[in-house]
Amino acid sequence: MTIRGLTAGTPLDEPGKIAQIVVPALGDATMRSSLSNGATAELLLGAGAQDDCAAFRLRGDLVLVAGTDYVRGPKFSLYEKGFLSNYDIGWYLAGANISDVAAMGAVPVGLLSVVRYPKSLPDSDFAELIEGIRDGARAVGVLNVGGDIGSAERIILSASAFGVVEPSNLLPRTGARPGQLLCLTGPTGLAGSAMKLANQGEDISGDDYSALLARWQRVSPRVEHGRIFANHPGVTACIDTSDGLKGAIETLARASGMAVDVDEACLPVHDSVRRAAASLNHDALQLVFGDSVDFELVAAIDAEAVTEVARECAESGLELHVIGSIRAGSGAMLSRRGVTTNIPGDVWRHA
Amino acid sequence: MTIRGLTAGTPLDEPGKIAQIVVPALGDATMRSSLSNGATAELLLGAGAQDDCAAFRLRGDLVLVAGTDYVRGPKFSLYEKGFLSNYDIGWYLAGANISDVAAMGAVPVGLLSVVRYPKSLPDSDFAELIEGIRDGARAVGVLNVGGDIGSAERIILSASAFGVVEPSNLLPRTGARPGQLLCLTGPTGLAGSAMKLANQGEDISGDDYSALLARWQRVSPRVEHGRIFANHPGVTACIDTSDGLKGAIETLARASGMAVDVDEACLPVHDSVRRAAASLNHDALQLVFGDSVDFELVAAIDAEAVTEVARECAESGLELHVIGSIRAGSGAMLSRRGVTTNIPGDVWRHA
């Protein structure tokens, strides 16, 4: 199939390429494979689903999920500015990829990493990078089971994570239903605040901003939350906030064909984000909703189930915040001191 | 764990990094995960195995294999010289990654791709690249089920492929046994010949060399061969020739703790490789064994099973060449007109 209607002008941005090129090319395929012993693999969520992971149903009782994320090398500006070590970016690579598996409600089981390095990189730096990947994965019970290493002009990091989930427990981003509550696993905007402060020339390595930088240094994918969500039938949709909270909410609403109303008063706002907002002369909500890779989860949960899910989270020492509700309709809005507005902040765009 | 004994001098090359850093950091871990319905995932082959893929046993009747390969962007010199199109390098990305799954004897079921592009890349070129990935995967029954796209300074391609295989049929590279025959699925050296001719300034786009360039344009991972091997109990080890034939044979011998004797008279040598050797003033065997990414498979097969395996291949229109034998010992040697020598050619090294 040839893609039609592409013009020779300015290339499309990433969302445009996905909508006009990738989904038409890849979106509608189905597959089912059988082995000689009767085991089967069947595609549940492919490229067209545009979910955190692809998903395959294996035989009757297991769904395999798999996702992949490239971590920008030279654009990893906090690394270039010296705020992140080689160990840190290794950990980040692991955590960012495992977050996609967590967002499907799956138990992550393996990580494959691609590590390309300039030949001049000292071996001790390379070793720290590998150790960071290993430890970031092990922190949530995952092994780095191999991958690809070799030289390149500069550091290039990419990985794939995969996991398994009970067929009835898979959490797509399409499952939100009218009357459900929208829940969030922790405060957002910390990672983006660190980036914005550093870009403004601030030294973010001090104690004042340690919580912000920690979001980059020790990504903590919400695997435990994901499993609590997956095991509860009242949780029907989930997505991670790797494109920021606004991006996650809007995508969940669009994918589910629902409207989302967020209540400002319910949003968890970290003190460090308030301080960053003051320093940046920003509205704190812009940071909370904006392009910040915090790797929290947003989930749609039946109203009558929220108390029990929140209790299970609390028993494991985990946060859960009800931040809004879902209704028939489309779009996502913010209720702010009684006034309904658009949700502030920018969605993460690779351009 | 901190890696000890690294010196501050010249960084290690890739094999050195793997042996002294990656395997000590990642090699010895084990894991087993359970789901609420009793399904389990257990690591069979991790980073320490250094096989084509990692492998997990899922519940009782299925092994998941997964591998990842980065395809060099700016070093993809045949692309830069205009001999490969965007469609071709997309197809190559799919085929190269699926080959790792085929080498484990598995049915490939999915491909995740990472495509990073310079913002100036015309959309039609980007679309061709995506179509190449899609078609390279579909040619062997595999779907591109998603991945990561976004901008970068230049084209960066990476992917992960995964597949499923019956637990008793998994083909590691460690399984060769004394008395087995060494078999090869087709002629090698074509891809490397194309590269060497182009580097010497030859125009390889003409009919004389079309078979050589086709190895890059339409990578054909040996999925059918892999499944015939997997389903036959007399086949116990397999590896692909992505590091060249010499590299594959030496790795199989070392991983299995065996010696391999190759017989020159049995090697398939493609006419185009003979012509390339003449043009390059090379010994053709250097090209046959050397650093050439032909994505053929090398397998260790019980002597009494070879006839049946070869017949099954022939019935599917597939080649199979007995090129040597396996015995207790170590190392790989070539018998050439009655004289035993080292195997010529260079092993692919990323450096």
Number of strands of chain A: 14
Give, in order, the helices and strands of chain A: HEEEEHHEHEEEHHHEHEHHEHEEE
Please state the oligomeric state of the protein chains shown: homodimer
Largest sheet of chain A: 7 strands, mixed
Distance between the termini of chain A: 26 Å
* Strand arrangement across the biggest beta sheet of chain A: 1-2-3-4-7-5-6
The chain-level structural class of chain A is alpha+beta
Q: Assess the beta-strand content of chain A as a share of residues.
A: 25-35%
Portion of residues within helices of chain A: 25-40%
| CATH class placement of the largest domain in chain A | Alpha Beta
Q: Largest chain interface and its two residue counts?
A: A-B, 93 and 92 residues
CATH H-level superfamily title of the largest domain in chain A: PurM-like C-terminal domain
CATH topology title of the largest domain in chain A: Phosphoribosyl-aminoimidazole Synthetase, Chain A, domain 2
Low-confidence stretches of chain A: none
Mean pLDDT across the residues of chain A is 91
What is the radius of gyration of chain A computed over CA atoms, rounded to a whole number of angstroms? Answer: 20 Å
Q: What is the number of independent domains of chain A?
A: 2
Question: Rough shape of chain A?
Answer: globular
- The number of distinct helices of chain A, counting runs of at least 4 residues, comes to 11
> Any idea what the CATH architecture of the largest domain in chain A is?
Alpha-Beta Complex
